[in-house]
Design goal:
Elements (H helix, E strand, L loop, with lengths): L1 E8 L2 E8 L1 H15 L15 H31 L9 E3 L4 H8 L5 E8 L13 E6 L4 H15 L2 E3 L11 E10 L2 E14 L21 E7 L13 E14 L6 H6 L5 H35 L6 H22 L10 H28 L6 H13 L5 H10 L1 H23 L1 E6 L2 H14 L1
Parallel strand pairs: 5-11
Antiparallel strand pairs: 1-2, 2-4, 3-4, 6-10, 7-8, 7-10, 9-10
Helix pairs in contact: 1-2, 4-6, 6-12, 7-8, 8-11, 9-10, 9-11, 10-11
Length: about 450
């Protein structure tokens, strides 16, 4: 094997490799000889098939396998000999002249090819002890627990049918059937029968429920509304619609006693136990949000403090993933870049920066994790796999089998575990200051983070 480096620019390396025909032929003959005792050919006793005959039958396919193995071994040796840390798998390019490739496959000529490599940059980690981040916290108050119980009451409240001739009042549950039209024409999803709605719950289109105040059983009235501009169904967004609504039942809310008996209907023995369960759930939700906020601040700080050349291949791969998701979502929503008040060119530039940020942070976290000797155990991956399988009720075995049979899919479970462990380690190095905020601020920040992507 002859290896000549032809490119050494930035993170890119390229080598010209020559695999001698004599070496390839020697490997092929050795492989064919191994076949003698395994193949069965009419007219020949086992193990007595002439080598020349085997070569005529299997020579070409064996040589293809030999070349594939030789190329893989050569590439591995290049990486090892030059102490390279690869960003992506090597890219092999064979000669465009197919006659040259054919000659090599037939064992008549050397095989020359090029292998392009992209290496990881050298990363100098910042002084993490100089980083200071705020962690917003919103402790659960008694009022928060009471509000959660009120919501449970509304969800489990009994309703009693009101007397004949009663007019619907706020908080009444009315059962309605309706037919909707836009410009006098029916539209998909605009018709339904026997739909219960609690007046004042704001579960219908804005302006729909107030127009049902005062309706009686058997009465039909027209409700005029405008679909919100950001309505999930794009073909209805911002459209004026008229609904012909008929009321079939009116029920008044019953009284719910908040006591141990009420808790038992929810599977908990006592009211105090219910309150503790609610407090723990709310605390868990807020702790998750708090961690997300401080993690975002930490990643911002890391991004500001690290600057190095990025492997083009990794950035392109990340951009393609992001862009594919964005364009798919836009297509499903029936939206264009103009609807988002931008252009495709501007959007590409924006998401390219996001891809670069993700690659940069991924490399920084990987470097830190390596230096800190952070490991992800098989047990941790298995627990994550169990959780993933549970999220697909009825398909748990299929999900389990899929991940177990696909190393890349299993690696996708390992990566976020590794990242969270590195973040945990980082939080022990940086200065973290807790900042008490209201629950509204905590959740509003979540919306802001979602917009930021």
């Amino acid at each position: 094997m002859q290896v000549t480096q032809t490119v050494d620019e930035g993170l890119k390396r390229e080598f010209r490799v020559v695999l001698e025909a004599s070496d390839l032929d020697r490997r092929a003959i050795s492989r064919i000889e191994e076949l003698k005792d395994r193949v069965r050919i009419n007219g020949f006793r086992p193990g007595k098939v002439p080598l020349a005959h085997l070569k005529r039958l299997y020579g070409r396919s064996v040589m293809v396998e030999v070349i594939e193995q030789a190329v893989a071994e050569a590439n591995s040796q290049i990486v090892a000999d030059n102490s390279l840390k690869l960003a992506l798998e090597p890219k092999v390019t064979f000669p465009e002249n197919q006659d040259a490739v054919q000659a090599a496959v037939e064992g008549q000529a050397d095989l020359t090819y090029t292998v392009a490599l992209e290496v990881l940059p050298e990363i100098v980690l910042a002084d993490f002890t100089a980083i200071a981040v705020e962690k917003p916290v919103a402790p659960v108050e008694d009022a928060d627990v009471d509000q959660a119980i009120d919501r449970l009451i509304d969800q489990n409240r009994p309703y009693e049918t009101r007397p004949e001739g009663s007019a619907a009042e706020p908080r009444n549950r009315v059962t309605i059937s309706f037919k909707g039209t836009i410009g006098g024409e029916p539209f998909d999803g605009g018709t339904a029968e026997d739909v219960p709605v609690v007046l004042g719950s704001d579960t219908f289109i804005p302006g729909f429920e107030p127009q049902l105040i005062g309706i009686k059983v058997g009465e039909t009235r027209t409700v005029n509304v405008t679909f919100p501009a950001n309505y999930l169904a794009p073909h209805l967004a911002g459209k004026d619609a008229a609904f012909e609504v008929t009321c079939t039942e009116i029920a008044a809310p019953g009284v719910v006693e908040v006591d141990d008996a009420f808790a038992k209907t929810l599977g908990i023995d006592t009211l105090d136990g219910l309150k503790d369960a609610i407090r723990n759930r709310l605390s868990g939700e807020r702790d998750g949000l708090s961690r997300a906020r401080v993690k975002r601040a930490l990643l911002d700080a890391l991004d500001e403090r690290h600057s190095f050349a990025l492997p083009d291949g990794l950035v392109a791969q990340e951009f393609d993933s992001i862009w594919g998701q964005i364009t798919s979502e836009m297509q499903q929503a029936g939206k264009t870049f103009a609807d988002e008040d931008t252009t495709e060119e501007a959007a590409r530039a924006e998401y390219r920066k996001i891809a670069e940020r993700r690659v940069r942070l991924g490399l920084v976290l990987a470097e830190l994790g390596t230096k800190a000797e952070i490991k992800v155990t098989d047990d941790e991956v298995t627990r994550q796999l169990v959780e993933r399988a549970r999220s697909f009720p009825g398909q748990e075995q299929q999900v389990w089998d899929y991940y177990r049979k696909n190393p890349n899919a299993l690696a996708s479970l390992r990566a976020p575990i590794f990242e969270e462990k590195v973040v945990d380690h980082l939080l022990t190095l940086v200065q973290v200051t807790e900042k008490r905020v209201s629950k509204e601020e905590l959740f509003r920040e979540e919306d802001a983070d979602k917009l930021a992507g």
